[in-house]
Write a structure and sequence with these properties.
single chain; binds 3-methyl-2-oxobutanoic acid; 13 helices
Length: about 300
């Protein structure tokens, strides 16, 4: 098994092969992402929406993010695992930021962390760098700012806002992020930021010119409920496939077709005969000698 991907290796991919990133939140989703060849697995706080059924990401805690990050890293993926810092875990001070990020690394096993925001986060990014924690940035439509943005809206549609985003990207790249997610921005803005900063950009709803792309696992596979944003491409409809499979199980239960012979355990014939005799009163319990040993011994389960 080759060594896991590192943050410096992702940084070195600027302008090279496109970076393949996807979210995962537990062992099965991490194994699927890794088998499919992910370079980066993001344990995103989108777990709130797609797994925990919450309306936004704001209630996620550091404890919960550590828990999900640990579930992902426990599978020992080849991909770099990035733990998402939840809202308010990096807003109050550089010290709190390092302490909380340190938990994602030490307890969660992450190889890097991600935080949202631009110039305001420079001192936090520098503190993480000083603590030797690689940090990924996230600009544009930053879901943790849902109230400040007035909803989930594409950012940087006007020239002045776009220009500001480009300067925010420069600020966090100078502060030391090893890559930056660009979410929900016009393609031209992403193209300009990608040309402007020395670190890779990873787009989600940011057009084709980024150095890599990321999608939310459940969106890509059709495992979510309701509509998805315009930028999502559905590569499967696994929820429909799963419902059909569970319906088929229930139909087999009703008809008696499940379980069948192949799904059923049997006793050895001799033990079955003794059990029937016990039921019919022909033999009394407790049994003695070889019969008793035979009946009471732990039977190995048939495969
Ligand atoms: O939480 C998340 O899944 C994210 C991605 C959308 C980049 O931040």
């Amino acid at each position: 098994m080759p060594a896991p991907v590192t943050a410096p290796e992702i940084q070195a991919r600027k302008g090279g092969d496109k970076i393949r990133m996807i979210t995962a939140y537990d062992a099965p989703t991490a194994r699927i992402a890794d088998r499919a060849g992910a370079d980066v697995i993001l344990v995103g706080d989108s777990v709130a929406n797609v797994v925990l059924g919450r309306g936004d990401t704001l209630a996620m805690t550091v404890d919960e993010m550590v828990y999900h990050t640990r579930a992902v890293t426990g599978t020992e993926p080849h991909a770099l695992v990035v733990g998402d810092m939840p809202w308010l875990s990096y807003h109050t001070s550089p010290e709190d930021t390092v302490r909380n990020a340190g938990r994602l690394v030490r307890e969660g096993g992450a190889g890097a962390v991600k935080l949202e925001g631009g110039r305001k986060r420079v001192s936090m990014i520098e503190a993480l760098r000083d603590a030797e924690i690689p940090v990924m940035g996230h600009l544009g439509l930053t879901p943790q700012s849902v109230h400040a943005m007035g909803g989930y809206r594409v950012q940087g549609r006007q020239a002045a806002d776009a220009y500001e985003l480009i300067s925010e990207a420069r600020a966090i790249a100078d502060a030391g992020v090893f890559a930056v997610v660009l979410e929900g921005v016009p393609d031209l803005v992403a193209e300009m930021i990608t040309a402007e900063v020395a670190v890779p950009t990873i787009g989600i709803g940011a057009g084709p010119d980024c150095d890599g792309q990321v999608l939310v696992f459940h969106d890509l596979l059709g495992l979510g409920e309701g509509s998805v944003p315009k930028f999502v491409r559905r590569y499967a409809d696994l929820a429909d496939t799963a419902v059909a499979a569970v319906e088929a199980f229930f139909a087999d239960v009703q008809s008696g077709a499940f379980p069948g012979e192949a799904e059923t355990y049997h006793m050895p014939a001799e033990s079955a005969a003794i059990l029937r005799e016990l039921r019919d009163g022909a033999t009394t319990y407790p049994l003695s000698g070889a019969e008793g040993d035979h009946l009471l011994a732990d039977e190995a389960m048939e495969s």
